[in-house]
Amino acid sequence: MHNKTLAQISQDLQAGEYSSVEVTKHFLDRINTLDGQYNSFITVTEEQALTQAKAADELRAAGNANEWTGVPMAHKDIFCTEGVRTSCASKMLDKFIAPYDSTVADNFNQVGAVSLGKTNMDEFAMGSSSESSFYGAVKNPWNEEHVPGGSSGGSAAAVAARLAPGITATDTGGSIRQPASFCGVTGIKPTYGRVSRFGMISYASSLDQGGPIARTAEDAAMMLNVMAGFDKKDSTSIERDVPDYRADLNKSVKGMTIGLPKEYFSDDLDPAMAQTIQAAIKEYEKMGANLKEISLPNTNLCVPAYYVIAPSECSANLSRMDGVRFGHRCEDPKDIEDLFKRSRSEGFGDEVQRRIMVGSYALSAGFYDAYYKKAQQVRRLIKNDFVAAFNDVDVIMSPVAPSPAFKFGEKSKDPVSMYLEDIYTLSTNLAGLPGMSIPAGMINDLPVGLQLIGNYFDESRLLNCAHQFQNATDWHTKTPTGLK
Amino acid sequence: MSLDTNQVLAIADLSRLQIDEKSITEFQTNLSNILDLVDQLQAVDTTGVEPMAHPMDAVQRLRADVVTEDNKREKFQKIAPSTADGHYLVPKVVE
Fold first, then answer.
1. What is the DSSP-derived secondary structure letter of residue A296?
2. Is A399 in contact with A269 (CB distance < 8 Å)?
3. N or C: which end of chain B has fewer CB within 10 A?
């Protein structure tokens, strides 16, 4: 049952092959048996899941079911879920029971999906390896000595280990695409403003975007149909109709023009990675797509611009964690300053503290123009590169990350080397464009993803390209060795 | 760009963080390396480039000034570390 895709489970439930309670119990049993190994879940909501499943079965018996009724899934532990701990993998929020639902969680509740629990991640989504979680690192199901990527490492690892057929995630600089690549699963980061950020704990508000991680493009489309849409509770949400993301899946890619940014295929790219990505792109050529070399001249500025903008916004966003209204509070504060400082230093891990400090520095008196304003100007130059490129091409393709999953501890000691891990993914967040990762090959028995970047609100085309690739190849069906 | 110990402590203070003695050097090294990385931006000519805050250059939407939410004070205070009579409690601020 766990090897079925979301779409298959949905069909089986509609055909009465099994009940929602049965499939929910099956996944819960799997999580209980296997997740000790991977640590991909922070909280498993067994009781609530079974209640939801029972209600779904009753709804179906009464003839009131839709395609989502009783379908099991899970949420990254960054989405507020009413009555359930929402920790963001931080000691700061270890005891935080969300008093309301995020719009994304509410959307899945509204369609009758069953939530199995909340998945592990880098603390406050700051990281590329899921090693910085207060609840311990997540293991990559393909090789437990390797990281699953981050920050949505728990979502990607759990989908790869078949512990849930689809899980929500978020992406601020690559946090959906890089773990999807490392774990051999499919993930899409939509256009900025497409999925509501209401109740999604903020890291860098102008870059954060929610999206799904699943096994196939079809499943990702099915989830995005639930997640996407205008939300008046999110002031940066875009008022624009949502298409049915499955409608274009079967379109041919014949005649489509694929842009290959020369800066992403430079001599610095690892030869094995270059070969794998080229082979994947060849598949598109076989399907009748045209290739065109393009240039994104400001690519080298993405990492520096990101590491001004993201820490600056994080320092402002995380100032709300002060030990007063919710979250961790230190013992016996001697005065208000002591309360703020000790609560925050005890509650936040090292990387979170580093980013807050970089941000406070960049925003401090006298430095604003040199850092934040400068980075926002560079951000526009980066966006303009893409706008120009999309005059000539329909979709851009590249590697997701410089390498397959690296080993634990390899980069966590040196923040800058970890930052460079996101070199190919940051640009789409800075420009606000949709980006996707699909399984496209293997290097040293570890999966590697192909990145697809689309024009604004062109998620349907990305999902179409991904689906066509998955019809022609079987990388997305590969299962981690030893996994039953 | 190299930060000295006092600068690190000043940034920690601005951030309302308390850095313990033994991690100062580590923060000093890491923060200096990060600032080196982002200093690459200074070489870029951005004369006349409008800063970009939202990819679609959207502006804040306005809405009618009417109540849209119920009062959920009790619900919100239930998760607070310390409250009394509907107030959040903190150490004495004003003598």
1. -
2. yes
3. C
| HSE-CB of A215 using CA atoms within 13 angstroms | 24
pLDDT digits (tens, 9 = 90+) for A258-298: 999 999 998 889 999 999 999 999 999 999 999 999 999 99
Query: What is the span of the domain harbouring residue A141?
Result: 6-255+396-477
The DSSP annotation for B64-77 comes to: -SS--S---HHHHH
Of A344, A376, A408, the position where a domain reaches its end is: A376
Instruction: Judge if A335 and A241 occupy the same domain.
Output: no
Average pLDDT, integer, range A196-212: 98
Six-digit token string for A441: 């090959």
Is A282 annotated as catalytic? no
Residue A417 Cα to chain centre, angstroms: 21
Average pLDDT over residues A110-139: 98
Would you place residue B21 in the very low, low, confident or very high pLDDT band (cuts 50, 70, 90)? confident
Does A135 fall in a domain? yes
pLDDT over 80 at A128, yes or no:
yes
- What integer pLDDT is reported at residue A14 of this predicted model? 97
Q: Say which residues have a Cβ less than 8 Å from residue A310's Cβ, sequence separation at least 6.
A: A172, A173, A203, A204, A207, A355, A359
- The residue written with tokens 């939407």 in the block is B61
Question: Chain B: nearest CA to A243, how far in angstroms?
Answer: 19
Given A76, A118, A139, A189, the catalytic residue: A76
Determine the pLDDT at residue B27.
93
Chain A residues touching B35 at Cβ < 8 A = 358, 361
Pick B44's closest partner by Cβ from A206, A301, A376.
A301
| Given the residues A102, A133, A151, A312, the one annotated as active site | A151
Terminus-to-terminus CA distance in chain B, angstroms?
Answer: 43
What percent of chain A clears pLDDT 90, i.e. is strictly above it? 96
Is the domain spanning B5-43 CATH 1.10.20? The answer is yes
